[in-house]
Structure formats: C-alpha cells, structure tokens
Amino acid sequence: MTRMKPRHAAALALCGWYLLEPIPDHKTNKTLYEAPLAYWETEGSFDRAVDCEQMRKGNVELMSNLRKKSFRPHTDQSPGSDLGLQGALAAKCIATDDPRLKEK
Description:
Number of helices: 3
Number of strands: 5
Largest sheet: 3 strands, antiparallel
Distance between the termini: 41 Å
Structural class: alpha+beta
Shape: flat
Order of helices and strands: HEEEEHHE
Helix content: 25-40%
C-alpha cells in the first residue's frame, strides 16, 4: 500500500462539495438541465461527499412527498408544479474545485 504525500492530503482536505440544482425557468415551466454548472443553484456546501449525497437524497424525498400531498387527481396541475421535484432529481454533488464551476 502506498502512503499519501502530505501535500496530497492537504489538497484533499481543502476540497469541499456543493449540492447544485439546475435552474428553473418559471416563464416556460421547464428545468434548464443544459445550463452550465456555473449557473446552477447552490443548495448547500459540505465538507464530505457523503453528506452532500445524503442531503441530495433527502431533498428528493421531501419534494416527492410534497408532490404527493399537493396532487389533486380531479384538477389540472400546472406544468410547473413539478419544477421542484425535477430540480431535486437532477441535482448533483460537485467538488468545489471542479473546473466546470468557472465557466461563467
């Protein structure tokens, strides 16, 4: 087994994680999945990837439950009623040093 050099350990310690969601377009009631990550909304920042992933899964569960509670089978739902769930499902945990975050 190889040992990690101190400078590599320091670099890993400095790397955090962002939970990012694609931006919703409320005018068209669509989620902008193709937007560069630099424009996605930051839902949280974390020291560990596992914490970010746990929050991502929790957000999906929360939005799914809200969707179930607000669904009315005998009324028309607006197309934008699922934007929150769509965003939560598409959310990603991205390292804070990911070069795609600097594309603005």
